[in-house]
Amino acid sequence: MPHLFIFGLGYSASRIAALARGHGWAVSATGSAGDVAFDDAAAVGAALARASHVLSSVPPADGKDPVLARYGDLPRAWLGYLSSTGVYGDAGGAWVDEASPTGTGRRSARALADENWLARGAHVFRLPGIYGPGRSAFERIAAGKAHRIALPEQVFSRVHVEDIASAVITAMERNAPPGAYNLADDLPASQNAVIDHACALMGVDPPPLQTLEEANLSPMALGFYAENRRVANGKARRVLGWRPRYPTYREGLLSCLLPPAAP
């Protein structure tokens, strides 16, 4: 039986774990929902020794990758890392793919971690805005935290959490070649379009259109609007044979209103 060990059982990795178990895999993980304490070197070492596949979803902290800093001598197993399309920086709304330059954006620590995992022969999955059940525009609207910003040329890419899981499992089961893979849906769109559509599905009025100054956003949210790019998913389609179940935010948002799909 293949055994997947996950560093950091967060939102996306939990869905990957559930899908892997549904495919008959054994799964163990660190994180609050996991069964292994990250700082327990003996337990982590034992789990790594059993693992045929190792995946990290732990983001950089204090400029370093915590997993590589603590457990950099990883076993000769299939390696995966959940990275970010933020490594591409601002593209002025242009398309980026896996051959585009990295390391020029605001996420320099993430770009370095991305590079270090690639150097170890990992499968690096670069993710744009992640959404899904319990973490979508609906929750922001209901909490009064949704914004529509007057930036007509601004576009973003996004990906449904279930599509992340299906791509990662496909890469593991098909023994895909290592390297970087962008996982994004087929329709980059403005945040305003997503909020408008979500409000229509909820039957509520959209929030007012504001300037960045009027919205009084947090530094993190301002950083989100400081970059503008479209993320191409062609390599994942060609090499993995992957197709997003939710090719646009429209199908993805509708799914968030329905009961969760079985793994």
Description of the molecule:
With 263 residues, the chain is an alpha/beta fold. It has one domain: Rossmann fold, CATH 3.40.50.720. It is 37% helix and 16% strand. The chain has a six-stranded parallel β-sheet with strand order 2-1-3-4-6-10, sandwiched between helices. The radius of gyration is 19 Å and the shape is globular. The two termini are 18 Å apart. 40% of the residues are buried. The model has no long low-confidence stretch (mean pLDDT 94).
Unreliable runs = none
- The helical percent reads 25-40%
CATH-assigned fold name: Rossmann fold
What kind of sheet is the major sheet?
6 strands, parallel
Over the alpha carbons, how many angstroms does the gyration radius reach?
A: 19 Å
Name of the level-1 CATH class: Alpha Beta
Structural class: alpha/beta
Total separate domains:
1
Q: What value does the average pLDDT take? A: 94
Tally of strands: 12
Element pattern in H and E: EHEHEHEEHEEHEEHEHEHHEHH
Task: Tell me briefly what this model is.
The protein is of the alpha/beta class and 263 residues long.
Key features?
alpha/beta; 263 residues; globular; two-stranded parallel ribbon; 12 strands; 6-stranded parallel beta sheet; 16% strand; Rossmann fold
Provide the fold topology.
Blueprint: E1 3-7, H1 11-22, E2 26-29, H2 41-50, E3 53-56, H3 66-71, E4 78-84, E5 95-96, H4 108-119, E6 123-127, E7 129-131, H5 137-142, E8 148-149, E9 158-160, H6 161-173, E10 179-182, H7 191-202, E11 209-210, H8 212-215, H9 219-225, E12 230-231, H10 234-240, H11 249-256
Parallel strand pairs: 1-2, 1-3, 3-4, 4-6, 5-12, 6-10, 7-9, 8-11
